Automatic annotation (TrEMBL):
Organism: Dactylosporangium aurantiacum
Primary location class: other
Cofactor (UniProt): heme b
Protein name from the UniProt record: Deferrochelatase
EC number: 1.11.1.-
Length: 419
């Protein structure tokens, strides 16, 4: 038995007991995943047709990191991707990042694992990688690795949206890695070790910690709430929506850039919520802005959370029950030519801003087949018309191409791109 798994049995049992009452498993893309958190300490398969961490039922914690590649040598980058893949395969199964481990090496040498996850179970850890536009060609036009002609058309730079207040230092990046787990220490351990392994080849550009998932990615999960107190992601794509996932999530043959077939594109947006202003807003106005009631999460005029919004319905005053600038109306697929996203967002609280106001909000993560036809038109509409804009600020943005899954132990992240 693996040393860490043996040490972690007691912890896994405790976590499993805490999740009692949630049972069963779901067969997703040929691999069995926990339907919700039947065993929050369990391991998620690393190998498969698609990368884990996309349709995987959303875990409770996030550590997202964006790297800049600081070498111009393709061989060094490929070697790092090979090392990262090997370490990721180990860590997602509850093992040390390297074969020597945190405590078994020579005393005079640095260990090949940092050790803070010793004794902890895998905790549903998933690691998902993506490649940003600047990996293919830098902002000054340099093709460092001879892959500029392999940049997918769907990885087009995002436009500047109305009311954007983006900070360049926490936006973009050559490579991203999304670490999700039920234990924050497990997620942080994974990112810390990948950064350690990448020393001299990549540098950390920015990171984001998240807690309290704000979207459900499986029908076995209840809808979560964001920091405004509203249920978020009611109409999200779900892992069980096989045909919708094919149409809206996974890159298909013929989409261009064949190395991306079976992959997906992820958009990240750090959205600061003006918490104090929102908290002084009346309940009725909050519900009108969102277009749903705050308790059940039902669309205004409906009874249940999953009732379809009736956009033509009017109140006694003759006005639409769901306002023209309500968030739910503007984001609905009917208003966006059927475009849908698979969201995996998380709440964040990064302390205060120095003026006694919470630096808090939503770290938005959305996977899709083609951002040009999905995220961009939806966000364009929201940025121009959404009444929620009075209470939020978009301060960070990222776009990355996430390749398909790893099929075997001799494969590595991005092999089809660099081959």
């Amino acid at each position: 038995m693996d040393r860490r798994k043996m040490l972690g049995l007691a912890g896994a049992g405790a976590i499993g007991a805490a999740a009692a009452g949630v049972a069963g498993a779901t067969l997703i893309d040929g691999a069995t995943h926990p339907a919700q958190a039947a065993d929050a300490g369990a391991a998620i398969p690393f190998y498969g047709e698609h990368q884990a961490g996309i349709v995987t039922p959303a875990q409770d914690r996030l550590h997202f990191v964006a790297f800049d590649v600081i070498t111009d040598k393709k061989a060094e980058l490929v070697e790092l991707l090979e090392k990262w893949t090997h370490a990721a395969a180990r860590m997602t199964q509850g093992r040390d990042a390297g074969s020597i481990g945190a405590v078994n090496g020579a005393p005079e040498a640095a260990p090949d694992d940092t050790g803070e996850a010793l004794g902890l179970p895998p905790s549903g850890l998933t690691l998902t990688i993506g490649f940003g536009p600047t990996l293919f060609r830098t902002a000054d036009g340099k093709d460092r690795f001879g892959i500029a002609d392999r940049r997918p058309a769907a990885l087009a730079d995002l436009p500047r949206f109305a009311k954007d207040a983006l900070k360049p230092e926490i936006s973009g990046g050559d490579i991203c890695i999304q670490a999700c787990a039920h234990d924050p220490q497990v997620a942080v351990h994974a990112v810390r070790n990948l950064a350690r392994i990448g020393f001299g080849v990549v540098s950390v550009r920015w990171t984001q910690l998240g807690f309290g998932r704000t979207s459900s990615t499986s029908r076995g999960q209840v809808t979560a709430r964001n920091l405004f107190g509203f249920k978020d992601g009611t109409a999200n794509l779900k892992a069980e929506d096989t045909q919708l996932l094919k149409d809206q999530l996974w890159v298909q043959p013929g989409d261009g850039a064949e190395w991306m077939t079976g992959g997906s594109y992820v958009v990240t947006r750090k959205i600061r919520m003006l918490i104090e202003t929102w908290d002084r807003t009346s309940l009725g106005e909050q519900e009108a802005i969102i277009g749903r009631n705050k308790g059940e999460g039902a669309p205004l005029g409906g009874k249940g959370e999953f009732d379809e919004p009736q956009f033509a319905a009017k109140g006694a005053d003759g006005q639409p029950l769901i306002a023209a600038d309500a968030h739910v109306r503007l984001a609905h697929p009917d208003a966006n030519e059927g475009a849908r996203l698979l969201r995996r967002g998380y709440n964040f609280v990064d302390g205060s801003d120095g003026l006694g106001r919470l630096d808090a909000g939503l770290f938005f993560i959305a996977y899709q087949r083609d951002p040009r036809r999905q995220f961009v038109p939806v966000q364009t509409r929201l940025a121009r018309q959404d009444s929620l804009n009075e209470y939020i600020r978009h301060v960070s943005s990222g776009l990355f191409a996430c390749p398909p899954g790893i099929r075997a132990a001799d494969d590595y992240w991005g092999r089809a791109l660099f081959a």
